[in-house]
Design goal:
By secondary structure, the protein is of the alpha+beta class. It starts with a strand and ends in a 15-residue tail after the last strand. It has helices at residues 20-70, 83-111, 123-140, 160-177, 208-211, 229-239; strands at residues 2-8, 11-17, 77-78, 81-82, 119-121, 144-148, 156-158, 183-190, 194-200, 243-249, 253-261.
Length: 276
Amino acid sequence: MYAAALENNSGVALILHDATEARQKTFEAIESERVQALTLLAASVAHEIGNPLNALHIHLQLMERELKKLKSPEQKNVRGVDTARLEQFLEVSKGEISRLDYIITQFLQAIRPAPLQLKMASLNGVVEKTLELLRPEIENRGVTVKTKLARNLTATPIDATQMQQVLVNLVKNAAQAMTNGGTLTLQTGENADAVWVSVADTGGGIPQEQINRIFEPFYTTKKKGSGLGLMIVQRIVRAHDGKIELESHVGRGTTFRIWLPLHERKPRLLEEKNYG
């Protein structure tokens, strides 16, 4: 809010102007333009990179078949070819192709969101399905999982599939933040207006200068990150009329908490006024 004073013969007039709404509209306009630009880029990326990746994947499979023909139970080297090293090279190549395919998929999901399919459901069920899906990866990292799920958690209108996508991104980030074991805690709760789910890790935490950019597209602190996971999280939560809270302490860990309203928001109708 800013004020301007105008002086005239009768005195001084003070004009107050609230710039908050104008600033918010400017921010929304900039964000809309950015999303439109990313959408156009997404279509180009999917076309220009997706097809060559599929061709590479197919040819790697053909190479694997030929390699199996060369292998022998008695010999490591066949015809002067080190089959073990070839297998290693193929695995690395397949892994990198899968990573690129994952980045493209994340990109398209971030830019071309599917409409919500809202149904009454409990966040507890979404948490349990997410952990069931990711448990092998979590255990492989030596991470301990703790759950603190509220009993009789009130059902809320959510798209369970998209909310699972939110938790998959947050749980993966949390697990990757803990390099030597650590504890991953998932918790749910509610108040009078909303239900919430939190994902907490005991990793290295996020410095303040990075927290301010953490939801920006393509910004990542990981060597092989796409920088799109948290953008997808934010988009899905906003589509649910929810909000995200982030608390992080360097050296102690990070907690993301997602709040979702208990009831669907209805469009507000203008009050009928009698001007007669």
